[in-house]
Amino acid sequence: MKLYELATTPNARRVNLFLAEKGITVERVQVDVRAGENLTPEFRAKSANGRIPLLELDDGGYLCESVAICRYFDELYPDELALFGDSPLDRARVEMWHRIVELDGLIPAFQAFRNLSGVYRDREHCVPAWGEESRARLQAFLPRLEQRLGESDYLAGARYSIADIAAYVLIGFLPRLDISVAELPQLQRWLDRLRLRPALAGC
Ligand SMILES: N[C@@H](CCC(=O)N[C@@H](CS)C(=O)NCC(=O)O)C(=O)O
Fold it and tell me: Which CDD domains does the entry mention (predicted)?
């Protein structure tokens, strides 16, 4: 298998942190999406959403969408980490928190960044007012994360999961939007806990 990515981008980080946690290595090909290398007809023929990360399978097929890629590796290589959960209720809680972080955190963050910075203005119409609104929605979401992390060691409960990986990627992206979480003590304690994980060292 081969993973097409740009390691510094947040959705590539989601997959990379997940694979690091599981100890899986895979051949990687860097695709400079900022320079439009994902806009070519060749790349678009491989990637259903036209973006990275994109996994090339050994049978010549392709999978895009970071969470689909993580789920595929998790089912190929099941382990005791059970990053998607380990019982019906646990899996549902992981899914619930993962979707909350994605829909209320990551998507507004990406919309804010794309529309305010204009980084992809060569391929989409940027609307600064939508960027501002998205940034405000993201800021309104952070206290909910703070509250949850005051109730629970990890987002979905007592164990680390893919929901924490998504939230960690979100927090790492906030400086690009000039948003600080220094004043959120529960979130800082959770970050300290996460930084002890060997898979996150230096990430
Ligand atoms: N929902 C997708 C989003 C993928 C995505 O937006 N990837 C960005 C890099 S983080 C990209 O390829 N951007 C290039 C573009 O929008 O043209 C996922 O989770 O994989």
Answer: GST_N_GTT2_like (cd03051)
pLDDT digits (tens, 9 = 90+) for 30-58: 999 999 999 999 999 999 999 999 999 99
Q: Dump pLDDT digits (tens) for 159-172.
A: 999 999 999 999 99
Structure tokens at 71: 């789920």
> Are residues 97 and 12 part of one domain?
no
Q: Are residues 63 and 93 in the same domain?
A: no
| Any atom of ligand 1 within 6 Å of the Cβ of 114 | no
Same domain? For 103 and 152 the reply is: yes
CA of residue 47 to ligand 1 center, whole Å: 11
- Check which CATH number belongs to the domain holding 49 and give it: 3.40.30.10
CA–CA separation, 106 and 108 (whole Å): 6
Select from 20, 42, 76 the last residue of a domain: 76
pLDDT tens per residue, range 105-115: 999 999 999 99
